[in-house]
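We modelled the chain as a single entity of 200 amino acids. Its sequence is:
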Amino acid sequence: MKKTLIIGQIVILLILGVKIATIGQMFDHAGLTRKMELVRAAVASTNPQSVSAATLGEAGDDRLQKERDLFALLEKRKTELDARQESLKLEEQKLSLLKKEIQDKIDQLVIIEKRLETKLDAEKAADAKRFKDLAKIYEAAAPAKAGAMLEKLDNKTAAGIVMNMKRDKAGAILSHVNVQKVVEITKEITRNYKTVPEKQ
């Protein structure tokens, strides 16, 4: 059984080998036919060596020229691609530098913003303390006198002082202020103070 299987495989391999050899001869025959034509042309001419050399030389030169042209084209394309790649590298470096500069400026702006916020918070705290201190002074004064003084202040300062007074004291003082001035102070309070603190 095994011998039969091995013999069968050998027969198949031999058949395949014969077919491959036949195909190879066909290709070789085509090349041989071309060579034979060249030889016949050489023999038929008066000067067989010159015809043979010329014909073979022309065929070889033509093929060689095509290969040279193709090589030159490939070299040109490679040079163009290398130049483009170099250009892209330079652009990438420029973009990287520009990105770093922008990031540095953003970092600087963030630092400046934090400083400004700190300064603004400090100024707000100082204003709040100043308004509280002034509110105590106005509360201690007689309502008529405090009203006359409040009337002469700018609306923002007057509003800040009133917002830091106790309600009953603020009402008593505002009753001695011109009605138009009270309206202006009230508008300033509603613009700049979101919530009215509870004062007793």
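As a brief sanity check on the tokenised model: Residues 117 and 123 are 10 Å apart (CA to CA). Confidence is low (pLDDT under 50) at residues 46-52, 196-200.
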